[in-house]
Amino acid sequence: MWPKEFDYVRASSVDDAIQQTSDNTDAKILAGGHSLLPAMKLRLSEPGKLVDISRLADLKGISANGTLSIGAMSTHAEIAASADVQQYCASLATACGMVGDHQVRNFGTLGGNIAHADPASDPPTVLVAAGATIHIKRSRGERSVSAEDFFIDLFTTDLEDGEVITRIEVPNLSGHKAAYVKMPHPASRYAIVGVAVILEMDGDTCKSARVAVGGATVSAMRASGAESALSGSSLDDAALNAAASAVQSDISDALMGDVSYPESYRQAMSGVYLKRAVKAALG
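RE: above sequence
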């Protein structure tokens, strides 16, 4: 199917992109295009104008200075290969390396990925677990929102009309144990269930834990019950069993499913993959 007719403009700056989308609420930002363009071809999205930000140098680049700063137009391939990302938040490099195929990773961007907010995508789950911050620019200035609050529902975020994601900031987690694991759909590679864990260890004891789940839920979300079950434990079988049970309860009100992988199956697998994530982090 062909997309509905639309106008196209290449933004000259971030401010220009903001003005273009503020003046026309029917406009959409075009980054890598790997999510938006297929939706337009199916007429699931019918913007009247595309504002292309793909050549804005201000939105590119990865740097590490106390925290990890990733430009919104950084591609999945760049993030997966970045030594800074691998040092500060290796699980994000892992997640970005799992996105789609080589073509998608070379053109798809982190900013576009989180703005699209596909619940089965990999990076949002890690960003929520890592306590990342999304920095956003608008005509009234700039604002920041935590990843945990940014993802609201199915393909729904805190991003408003006339706003552009500029960068994603991730804390330095180099001293933590972390992992992201998923059950990939055999055809699409999207996560049927994806779990990210960030563990702060004191010897063999888990001082604190952050857990996020995606794929099984309408958006990437924290699992506070699982975090409590892991924190203060030695991460033995009893603690992992308690955390697996807790994570199923944590996501019970946000489950999604289909005829192949119903809600009950994804809920059960969330516990299985939580255990795998913890073991991967420790390993």
